[in-house]
Amino acid sequence: MQYRRDPVSGKDLSILGLGCMRFSANRAETERMLLAAIDGGVNYFDTAYIYPHSEETVGQILAKHGKRNAVHIATKLPLIMCRGPADFDTFFDAELARLKTDHVDYYLMHMITCMEQWALFCEWGIEDWIARKKREGKILRLGFSFHGTREEFMKVLAAYPWEFCQIQYNYSNENYQAGREGLKAAAARGIAVMIMEPLLGGKLAAGLPKEALRLFAKAAPARSPAEWGFLWLWDQREVTCVLSGTSTAAQMRENIRAAENARPLSAEERAVYAGVVSVFNKSYRIPCTGCNYCMPCPRGINIPGCFAAYNTSYAQGFVTGMQQYVTTTAAVGKNPRRPRLCVGCGKCESHCPQHIPIRGGLKKVTGRFEAPPLRLGLAVARRFFA
Questions:
Q1: pLDDT block averages, 10 residues each, the chain of length 386
Q2: In terms of Cα–Cα distance, which of 287, 271, 205, 193 is closest to 236?
Q3: Residue-range domains of the chain with CATH
Q4: What is the enclosing helix (H) or strand (E) of 38?
Q5: From CA 275, how far away is CA 208, in angstroms rounded?
Q6: Helix axes 225-234, 249-261, angle to 10 degrees
Q7: Nearest CA among 37, 92, 44, 46 for reference residue 65
Q8: What HEC string does 336-360 produce?
Q9: Rounded CA separation 330/79 (Å)
Q10: How many CA atoms lie within 13 A of 270 on its CB side?
Q11: Is 66 exposed, middle or buried (0-12, 13-18, 19+ CB in 10 A)?
Q12: Residues 269 and 46 sit within 8 Å (Cβ to Cβ)
């Protein structure tokens, strides 16, 4: 296994981390996978309160085999479920019990989408709560996971002395959400950057168009699409750890081999990605590259995020697309930024290098995700969470 230094703690973190969101229903297989990860040198496990049975499973398996100290556990405070300051301790104490530990190595504020959201929790005293937990030795390092626009990422990044962050980033949407600019900004602040969705929910491993697969195979016949995805990330020194959401021991061992053999890409190899992305984007309904030239929208709509969710709903299934739409637009928050807010000013279209009819595209997104029954469901969810 190869490792990169966490610039804040000085700890060496494996360049491959285990994302614990998509565990197999087969408990024995999950146990084999976790042990294979540890045996292969993976020392960063990322879970969350809202991942079904994830924290309990990680805690039980580590305790059973006496491996708690073999890994750095990362988990998250479910901000979307907090109704007030008292919930901070309620959720955190439950997480410690689930994980069978007395501390969390890397603790994240989960799914921050905008500065407004973080400001609300600051009003609730989250900064004092974090300071207390760190004094008690229950939180060793504090970070955040992000699901909003690049502009909002920069604001949140500067709003607190974070020690690490977690962003969605892969070769297919280099400028989506925090993007490459956000990655570099975080690294410049001297903090570790963890990468989620490196294979776009598996689509870059098993869902590539045939022409894209041919381009990869021509360049390196023995290299899998998944390895291509990981190598693009590891080629960037600003990336500290890439989270792999595997569900079997065989997948984990394959990814470990990729991490062991990782090396800088050649100029010829880097050029292959451009061709693959071009083919990949053609399979999307709205050919948005996530460049963010259309932003900021005067109405606060996350235009690239809306289009990404729309395309995902066709490429990976409606449920996955709807999940992305909900986080992208803060659809269940107090102030959702849904495409229905568009007033048709056209400012976005005047800046789009792809010449996308954005206003028409936003209407398609609205029709896809906010048909009357779905709109009612979002309203109920918003009332519950807000």
A1: 97 97 91 98 96 95 97 96 96 98 97 91 97 98 92 95 96 88 97 94 81 94 96 98 94 97 96 92 76 86 89 78 82 78 92 86 92 70 58
A2: 193
A3: 3-273 (3.20.20.100), 303-385 (no CATH)
A4: helix 27-39
A5: 12
A6: 50
A7: 37
A8: CCCHHHCCCCCHHHHHCCCCCCHHH
A9: 12
A10: 9
A11: exposed
A12: no
Nearest to 270 by CA among 225, 235, 223: 235
Do 337 and 366 contact (CB within 8 A), yes or no? no
Amino acid at 108: L
End-to-end CA distance of the chain: 44
Helices (H) and strands (E) in the chain, counts: 17, 10
Q: Which of 26, 30, 27, 18 is nearest to 249 (CA)?
A: 30
Strand 192-196 versus strand 164-168 pairing type: parallel
Tokens of 237: 């020194």
Helix (H) or strand (E) holding 242: strand 241-244
The identity of residue 165, as a single letter, is C
In this prediction, residue 176 carries a pLDDT of 80
CB 67 within 8 Å of CB 75: no
Rounded distance between C-alpha atoms, residue 294 and residue 69, angstroms: 47
- 199 CB contacts (<8 Å, ≥6 apart)? 170, 205, 226, 229, 230, 244
Tally the C-alpha atoms within 13 A of residue 317's C-alpha that lie toward its C-beta: 8
Do 193 and 239 touch, CB atoms closer than 8 A? Answer: yes
Residue 9 burial (CB count, 10 A) = 16
* CA 30 to mean position of chain CA atoms: 21
The Cα–Cα gap between 337 and 323 comes to: 15
Q: Is 259 helix (H, G, I), strand (E, B) or coil?
A: helix
CA dihedral 73, 120, 381, 77 (to 10 degrees): 10
pTM: 0.78
Distance of CA 142 to the CA centre of its chain: 17
- Residues in Cβ contact with 370 at an 8 Å cutoff, skipping those fewer than 6 apart: 338, 339, 340, 378
Amino acid at the residue 262: A
